[in-house]
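60S ribosomal protein L18, putative, Leishmania tarentolae. Tokens?
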Amino acid sequence: MGVDLTGISKKSRVIRHHTYSTNPYIKLLIKLYKFLAKRTSSGFNKIVYQRLIKSRSNRAPISLSRIAVVMKRKAVFTAKSKKAPIAVVVGDVLDDVRMARIPAMRVCALRFSKSARQSIVAAGGECLTFDQLAMIAPTGKNTYLLRGRKSGRESVRHFGASGVPGSHSKPHATNRGKETKRGRRTGQSYKRKAFRHV
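Tokens:
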């Protein structure tokens, strides 16, 4: 007799149909891009709408260096022409202090960190919002959709069973303090005896 595998057929993909965010700006953008997704045949607006609905952990941030690498690969910068492509990020754009020189880029994002905005503007680039993007490129023409790594979070490193052979997950280790210090461990030149009140 075979084993009855119950529950396997019940597993279904979770699809969001609305946001749980209380941010009024994001709610307005969702309305705008839902309208554009219905009215235009462009798939760009549909993807932006789906990403706006996602949770914050699924809207991972991206660094300026990563955007610069991708845009350099495309070999298109604002210096060459005013109609340079726009890097679109449905999330946060963060600065990278390791990059001494940043090329002039046009970037659209939900939020820019203070230093990232300063770096883009100082390089002769442009920081755009999504409502500005809807006016410039309503169909998503001349844009590149980018997103950050979702696995970059600290909590992802703890996923899985730590200590299992072949597992690289980080254990939730607590600070053991005095019990592992020198003088408490055996074979460390001396052994301190525990003090007892009499």
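Strands lie at 62-63, 86-94, 106-112, 126-128, 143-146.
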